[in-house]
Amino acid sequence: xxxxxxxxxxxxxxxxxxxxxxxxxxxxxxxxxxxxxxxxxxxxxxxxxxxxxxxxxxxxxxxxxxxxxxxxxxxxxxxxxxxxxxxxxxxxxxxxxxxxxxxxxxxxxxxxxxxxxxxxxxxxxxxxxxxxxxxxxxxxxxxxxxxxxxxxxxxxxxxxxxxxxxxxxxxxxxxxxxxxxxxxxxxxxxxxxxxxxxxxxxxxxxxxxxxxxxxxxxxxxxxxxxxxxxxxxxxxxxxxxxxxxxxxxxxxxxxxxxxxxxxxxxxxxxxxxxxxxxxxxxxxxxxxxxxxxxxxxxxxxxxxxxxxxxxxxxxxxxxxxxxxxxxxxxxxxxxxxxxxxxxxxxxxxxxxxxxxxxxxxxxxxxxxxxxxxxxxxxxxxxxxxxxxxxxxxxxxxxxxxxxxxxxxxxxxxxxxxxxxxxxxxxxxxxxxxxxxxxxxxxxxxxxxxxxxxxxxxxxxxxxxxxxxxxxxxx
Length: 474
Known about the structure:
By secondary structure, this protein is of the alpha/beta class.
C-alpha cells in the first residue's frame, strides 16, 4: 500500500518536525468518493461516496484548520467559512460539484456561533444547527478554464494519441495473454449490454470499464460480488492500472499527459495567488477532479520514481496537496518570497494511512524552495495558448487566444521577489499563470456575488456506453 511505501519518508518528515515552520497556504486536488459505474450515462456519487469526501474534508480540517494543529494555516478562521479564503472549483459535473461540496462541509462543519441577534431581541441562526453554505465554482465545458482540471478532454490530439494504444504492441500482447482470464468473467457480466458478445468486447481493451463494473458491484450488489474472487478483483485492478496509466503517460506521445500539464499550471496559479495577496486570499484552495488527472501529474512529476504505487489508479476520495510554508515560526506572511517552500503530499483514499510527503521531479528532498518548485513545474506546465496548439483544438476560446496571443517572456533573466534570478522559461511560466491567478480571483468574486443561477446537472455527463439495463451497481 502507498502508506507503506512512504513509511520511511514519513519518518524523515517526523525527524524534521522539531524545527518550527509555518504554513501559509495549501492547494488540494481531491477525487470523488464511491459512485455508481461509469459504464452507464447517469452514474452518480453515492451516499457512501459523499461520506468519504466529507470524512476527507474533516481530516484536512484536523490538519490545517484546527488551532492546535502543528500544520494550522496562519490566520485562517477555525470556525467561519469564506469563499475568498477557501475557494472551491470543479468541472460542471454533478459528481465533482458534489464531491467538492461534501469535502468543504467536512472542512467547515456547522457553526453555532453564527447566530445573529435581531432588533426585536430574537436570535436567528442558519438551519441545521448553523450549517455553513459552502460555494463551489462550476467550470463549464465551453469555458477556457475547463482545461485546468480536464486537460485531456476536448483535446483532439489527445484522443488520437490515446486511440493508438489499442493497436500498440504492448496492448495487443496483453489482449492475447489475458484473453483466458477475461473469459472467466462472462457469467458475472451477463446481461450487461456491451458484453453480450464477450469474444469481441471482454478483453484488455476494455480493462477499466470491466474493472469499474465489477468493483462497483463488489460494493453494492452481493449477487454479482459472489461471482468473482478476491484474486480476480486484484488482477482486474492491476490490468486497469496498466491500461489507464498508458493512456496518461507515453514519452513518444507526450500529449497523453496533457491533463497533468494543465493541472500543474493551475497549482502554480493557486499558490501564486496566495503569494501575490500575501495570504489574504486562497489560503486553502480546493479542486475536485478525476483519476486521470492524478495519473498524468504523477507521470510528469516523476513520482513513479518513488515507487510502483504511483503507477496505479488513486482510490476513491484520494487527495494530493501542495503546502506553501516557511521553515520558521511567523506571525505574518513573509516579505521575501525566497523564504517560501513547497511540499507535495498524497493520501490514497480515506483508509490507507496519513497524508504523506513525497519528493517531486525525481529528487530526494521532501520540500523545495518556491523558485525550484516553480522551475520544476514549469518544465511541463501547459497554459491556454500552448494547450490549444498541442491539442489542435478549434474551440471558440482557442480561436480567441490565437487572435490575442500572450506577450513573449522577458528576453533577459527576470528577478523573483526574493532577489534570486530565475530563467526565462520559468519567468514565462510564472507570467502565464499570473493571468490564470487573475481568473482565480475573479472566480472568487463570482462566488461571492452569484446566487443560484441556472440548474445543476442531475447526473454524470459521461456519454452512454450502452443501454441502461443489467446495471451491476443497483
